[in-house]
């Protein structure tokens, strides 16, 4: 229990750090421009801006400040411009800027008042209500007072107080001169921050961005600010709702029309850092070669998504690797069509699935003939094909939010607002069930489930707007946005950012909903074809015909029956191998495996195959030599000890054969016993772990230990026929026939049609000298097959 809690806390910490890294990455992607203000006559100020800021304007006028100009502020290239209103006091020594950052419906957070005075020594005094997160080095030519919760009057008093304490007199500047000096000051400040390592130039003197280190500091400070600092309770200017809607729509359309600029030279470091963290999170779950294959499969998968996005004209592509889970490829396009989204989703799993199937098929053929794959270690190409097929086939399944689930949602479920939400809920439930045995998957499912309530809200609004939106021609996005924001004006608790996300989602779903049915049917056929061919090809590639036959034969059988059938098949396969293989084919196999060993001296599978072929040809010394070579290179390979045991037994060295068999059993079964024991300590009633441990002990020859585990399991579940059958077989092996009969009789009283129990009881009756009873059981057994 404690270990699970520790794991959950650890994973939570990883997710928090991943979120900080992602937020920092987004911060570095925000391209900011050096000030390039366009001054305008205050009489031309848009009425909606004047109305929104009327309370601020009147308060500044009461302090004898005069509105002298306004202009747009181009803070970042990724967002529409904001507004700044500039005021001047009668002495021309104090200026005040009122920043109305977009959108003004969040004015309580984004309206910034800043008073500025330049002193005789070129130092600038700033007094502002903007927050200071302390992520920059102090600028020597600047004195800054940050009074976050202060009113305009408080800012005015604090500014005058600081001026009265200064030994340097202020400068009286005309508006144009003040503007020029302020722009020079801003540019000098940005250059200072670049030289200090806080910013990096993108285009020197024009555009810049945060350094990653500074972005991390900012992200952490903002998180702590939101968690622990008191909320800002300043009053919000009240404006007419219709005016607010008008401005929100204007802002929304401007943001969708703006092009996201790409950041040069930064994203690759974020990608590499996240890839390193992702690799470290899986390092203990894979062998080194398998880990490299797995990472390559993930990169191929996400690369397929990114390539498709670029081909369809998406902008700002990026990929982020998420430790313990996977990766996420993202890009931006506001008017993507249903067909484009379909191929982008399919472009991830399809290339890897095709490659995995191709490697498996060509690899299978290469076992019969010489090819490129003959030079590979057989286990490497098999592992490559298995990872590629399983990873991409799983992603192709129609379970949201996997790629296949997104395709199914796109083509079928998203047409109905509520049906789409129910489908997403089903996907979260499936992931939750999978997460019962995997805490990481469980956390992922919880994250998905947390977004579902918001999906239902969007579904409600979309359902209410559905008919009206259908009446609007598709290209008329402005009319659709007007309709959506008018609907959302009755939800004052929503911020503009939330409204923007809702509007974008509704427009996106509306565009896919109006896609032609012919396109949906055609794309659905393509998806189903890929899924069916993928499943069929995966089965064909991963399982031999004999393995498939065994799977079919084992359907409906208990675990013990399956193991018994597997043992009998292995004996039969060995007999067929011994009888069908002639000396020529065995020599050819030795030659083939020798070639593989020459190409890769560490190919343990080739040594073992050659060793068994030599053993079949009675080359005992050669077989032992191959076994020794594997043992020297890979001491924990139990198959090599089994091979040497058989060779010694054929040579008559029974003691050595027994010792090797015991060593092989220890390597094979002791770790399984240890793992099961740990699980039983955590849950003493874990029957499945008890059965695995008893099976391992029985294979180790510890019959008493196995019997003890069977007894414990039966105390927990007394009428478990599978456990009773296993204990009966163990009693039979020990020739404890009365105990065995007692268990078999109990099995048949619970399950009168258990054919295996009749067969086992007949064997015991024959061994005990009761042929009549044995024949009666065999007669009963024949009835099941007639």
TrEMBL record:
Q: Which cofactor does it need?
A: Zn(2+)
State the source organism's domain of life.
Bacteria
Write out the entry's keywords from A to Z.
Hydrolase, Membrane, Metal-binding, Metalloprotease, Protease, TPR repeat, Transmembrane, Transmembrane helix, Zinc
Q: Which SUPFAM superfamilies match?
A: TPR-like (SSF48452)
Q: How does it sit in the membrane?
A: Multi-pass membrane protein
Please name the Pfam families in this protein's record: Peptidase_M50, TPR_11, TPR_8
Q: Where are its TM segments located?
A: 269-300, 307-330, 342-363, 422-452, 521-543
Positions of the Peptidase M50 domain: 290-368
Biological process annotations from GO? proteolysis
For this record, an example GO cellular component is:
membrane
Q: Where in the cell is it found?
A: Membrane
Molecular function (Gene Ontology), one example: metallopeptidase activity
From the UniProt record, list the TPR repeat ranges.
687-720, 721-754
InterPro entries in UniProt: Peptidase_M50, TPR-like_helical_dom_sf, TPR_rpt
What protein family does this chain belong to? Answer: Belongs to the peptidase M50B family.
Task: State the protein's name.
Answer: Peptidase, M50 family
